[in-house]
Amino acid sequence: MDELELLKKDWNKKDSDFKKLSSADLYAMLQKKSSSIVKTLFYISIAELLFWIVINSIPYFSSDSYRERLEAIYNNEHIITALTIFSYAVILLFIYLLFKSYKAISVTDSAKKLMESILNTRKVIKYYVIYNLIMAFVSMVVGMYLTIIHDPKLSHVIETFSNKQLIAFIGIIALAIVVFVVIIWLFYKLLYGLLLKRLNQNYKELKKLEV
Amino acid sequence: MEKELEHSFVELLEKHQNIVHKVCRLYTNNYDAHNDLFQEITIQLWKAYPKFRGDAKFSTWMYRVGLNTAITLFRKSKRRINTQDFDGVEFRMKAEDYDDTEEQQLKTLYKAVHELNDIEKALVFLYLEDKDYKEISETLGISEVNARVKMNRIKTKLKTILNP
């Protein structure tokens, strides 16, 4: 006899093994909160949005003197306004994309489609993180450069550097910035890697069937 | 309105709860994890219920949501104190139903099925539940041909495990 037929015969006999839940038990379950990966993903994306909004808002909400200095460094207050508007526009765009991709996740789709929708949401978050990391990288480099140029004390110190010292100085700063960006990136890789490990495995398995 | 919806949902779920139990039996191996997954599937079913249209059978719809939750949405249970495996055959059934070899074969089979990966389990589950390849392929989002091919491979795999 076919092994699965043997299993099938037994499988359906065992229905009575389960502890029958009463409607009261089921009502109680409806009050509980879901702990699905979509929910976790949702909370993480909200946290990401808030985190980067706060980071983006630091110049805006910081003290007047700091702003004045920033404006002096950039030499033009319009640049700061333009950058602020741009960064908020990007955040709004991501909020819209995230909202759209969450809406597309449906538990009644096929397994493959559901996995794709979740992976798509994860992709939106990934792009958001990449965008922010690039912005952080660029603004740190530019900020550092402008500070060196505009800070009389610092530029005076640098003038006394030999060529070797100057290269070492730039190298250390560049390394610090790269390390900072890489650490944040690894943190995200780990976070999403752990959360979506099983989903990725199963998605690969489904894709493999199509080859 | 909400109350009515809740009432009709609980009534249907109570009637078909074995489907959820069976998914949980396949994808978990201890009592706590079974309950956690059951609860998550119930929540997912309830969240999707307002969009449930009567033209599909409630049970058919449950298979899809149940499997999707088990394969994709469910994060493994955090409670792992009780890790004692229960492999179906252990806690049940009068011995007279089976002769020793069949009993032994079933035990090995259940164990083998538990060791399959999530997707293979889903295929076996739908097969055991007498679903045709059209429904299997639609539930998983693969073609009918691929579902058949995969199912045959699983059968061979199980055969090898049983008759090494």
The CATH architecture of the largest domain in chain B can be given as Orthogonal Bundle
How far apart are the termini of chain A?
31 Å
How many domain units of chain B? 2
- Helicity level of chain B: 55-70%
Derived from helix and strand composition plus strand pairing, the structural class of chain A reads mainly alpha
Low-confidence stretches of chain A: none
Number of helices of chain A: 8
Outline the low-pLDDT stretches of chain B. 81-96
The H-and-E topology of chain A, N to C, reads as HHHHHHHH
Keywords (chain A): Membrane, Transmembrane, Transmembrane helix
Organism (chain A): Yeosuana aromativorans
Transmembrane segments (chain A): 40-59, 79-99, 125-146, 166-188
Protein name (chain A): Beta-carotene 15,15'-monooxygenase
Secondary-structure blueprint of this entry?
The complex is a heterodimer of chains A (211) and B (164).
Chain A: H1 3-13, H2 23-31, H3 37-61, H4 64-74, H5 77-103, H6 111-150, H7 152-159, H8 163-209
Helix pairs in contact in A: 3-5, 3-6, 5-6, 6-7, 6-8
Chain B: H1 2-27, H2 31-48, H3 58-73, H4 100-115, H5 118-128, H6 133-140, H7 144-162
Helix pairs in contact in B: 1-2, 1-3, 2-3, 3-5, 5-6, 6-7
Keywords (chain A): Membrane, Transmembrane, Transmembrane helix
Organism (chain A): Yeosuana aromativorans
Transmembrane segments (chain A): 40-59, 79-99, 125-146, 166-188
